[in-house]
Amino acid sequence: MENKDKNKNTINRRSFLTALGTGTALTTANLIGCKPDNKVSASGGILGEIPTDKMTYRTNPHSGDVVSLLGYGCMRWPLRNRADGNGQEVDQETVNELVDYAIAHGVNYFDTAPVYVQGWSEAATGIALSRHPRDKYFIATKSSRNNTLESGIAMYRKSMEDLQVDYIDYYLLHSVGGGDDGIALFEERFITNGLLDFFLKEKEAGRIRNLGWSFHGDVKVFDHVLAMDLQWDFCQIQLNYQDWKHATGRNVNAEYLYAELVKKNVPAIIMEPLLGGRLARVPAQALTMMREVRPGDTAAQWAFRYAGTPEHVLTVLTGMVYMEHVQENIVTYSPLEPLNEREYETLEQVTKILVDSDYIQCTTCQYCMPCKYGLDIPGIFAHYNNCVSANRLLKSSNDENYKKARKEFLIGYDRSVPKLRQAARCTECEECLPKCPQSIPIIDEMRRVDAYVELLKQKAQF
Fold this sequence. Notes:
The protein has about 450 residues and is α/β, with parallel strands linked by helices. About 40% of the residues lie in helices and about 15% in strands. The strands form four sheets. The chain has an eight-stranded parallel beta barrel, surrounded by five helices. It has a two-stranded antiparallel sheet with strand order 1-2.
């Protein structure tokens, strides 16, 4: 099964709607209370009351867990400067506030990993969650970057310690599918060293309640792991309306991944519903199409409704650093209004615009960081992509408002990315290339951004 990626195994729109289903909304009445009030969304619209008892839930068929459709991704906790001036640290007070608010409004799934937030995520997440009753939340973490039984066990036990728990609800074999020979790497990391056997014994003992894996990469590895002689409790995949049929880099079309999981009765946990934020800042032409159908919704709400509509999706993960993002996402899933056929047609048109645009396909996942030469790779690409989404990428010095747009780009670039961390400083060492889950040609894209910057600086006629 070597070519199950880009264009095979497609289904028409009506079959797609049937396959997705609508899911069933449940509510909860025994959550921590919070007085709702009118809030402003990230896009500036009034959200109205933020409900505490209307969250949509899905049931894991293997464990019976009733999981909030909105899952909290803990990859990007807010940071602050240390009081002693020696670097940064997690802003624990803000993390506590975000977690408290999420739980009070029905969110009960929190996803972290030993490698997130410079290695600080699990401890910060554990501090915030340990202030709540253990039965109010599910915690997910991962077996990351290990190749020996000893290192894998040590990481697992450290996760328990940092999270302040004596069992883990959802434990993942992390980032399965990468490398030049993904199957061999998977076997080395989890099979031949006996680590998967150890995790299965921990599951029998009740210290791991659900065992699964996250997928990035080669479809042959996906097929290999899914075909193993054991029932996986869940699988984490990248799914959004662009990646359904137009996945880039090492990613595989979500249409295929989702269909295969349904066949095996493996619930899907969704990552990158916003594709690194790109689907929250779509080009003006695309946003106009969306507003013709649903005038009050943001681009992000469209993307979250898309990711949450398939009935075999257990939860949709998103990293929420700001309270307004938490509030908007809670409103979107409280309860979920599944997409209808007209809305799918609209997103097909939006996808065509995105696929044909000048976007750099960066999801700001930070896997390429830190750069040993100090470059802010995600920051560089984010500034460029913001200009694309705002239709302010200059094609010619004859463009309307050229002087204003040129000034805004250059000043904004210097403000968002310090000069010593900009594209011009890239040494083309290529150490970042194998780390990128999207297989972005980072060096080429750095050249493209730098060439554009130099054109603007020189006021060149182009």
